[in-house]
Write the structure tokens for this entry.
Amino acid sequence: MKNQLKVVGYLFLFISVCLSGCKNMHDIYAEHVVPNGSKYPGKIQSVVAHSGHNRVVLGWRNTKDPAVNKIRVFWNNYADSVEMDLSERKDSSSLSIQPLLEGNYNFIVHTYDRDMRRSVPLEVHGIVYDDVYSSYLSNSVIVEDRIVENEGLLINWGTPDIQNGMIGTRVIYRNNEGKEKSVLISSTEKKTFITDFDFFSTGYQYQALFLPNELSVDTFSVALESRFPSVALDRRLWTVTASSFEATAQIPVGGGPPEKTLDGDVNTFWHSKHTETMVPFPHWLAYDMKKKILVEKIVLTARPGKFNKEDFNKFIIQSSNNGTDWTDHGSFTFADIDEPQFFVPQTAISARHFRIYMTAGPQKYSHLAEVAVYGKAASL
């Protein structure tokens, strides 16, 4: 019986507190209540605070109360406010509050009727971003980029900065009609190929784009950076000659003729002559690029597997404008690895022809799978 009395007592106390709270709330808005039973002015619905750069954009559904004609938004404990007219009947509205310092804000929203009575308050939280957030942002990571002559620009992207809200990358370039063009690349894209990139342009610019959160109304970006990738030259019109080649051995598995170094297949290869008469070093492969080229680097790929240990290991890069008189551009070492190896001439090359002049190796013969060049067309 005593326990039942305690329960009844607690229930009575709870109801009294609730009634007291309701009475206090009623007292606060007592001046807005008129004897005929009218309510406070209708309040807006579904208000959302969209984050921005030194601003917050509030969006909401308007009240259907015909007496409401304006809205006022307060922040900093009612110290700051902004007002907006709502006399035009629309289903929804938005309000940009700016300029604001970076940080978190609590906004208190009231609607007002023609008699300046205000609604029950509506509170919404918003975030403003500026220099502090921007200081954490960095540009997109480019693992590799190269221009393929007559084909386009290839970009391989690194891991995007998802943690800070990276959504993509803007790439600005000149197309093959000579016009500047801008494209947006999603952060989910791992590889981009731009087919209308101008082969003769000097490069391109790029910048990462960020949204700090899913409610952000402003996109942030880092400073534009420039890239000047080398051009992987189109080899389809090239011709090649060799000091010697094996016409029949390794056929059909591999090859022998020097043209095999231009077919894009590392499993086919040029091989110096080694049947009947063994031709010793030096060996050479000479390439006619059909036009004068500023050669930036030469790429050599060895015959794969254990065979690369039998390749030449010392060579000279040479150039010529007539295919007869050759100029040296440095001596180099060719490693016994399967991966493509890049060699930058020690002196500038501006020529139509180049030659790989092989001077030494572990065997008398040699072989090579692929030869490519990065560079640009030279002025006449």
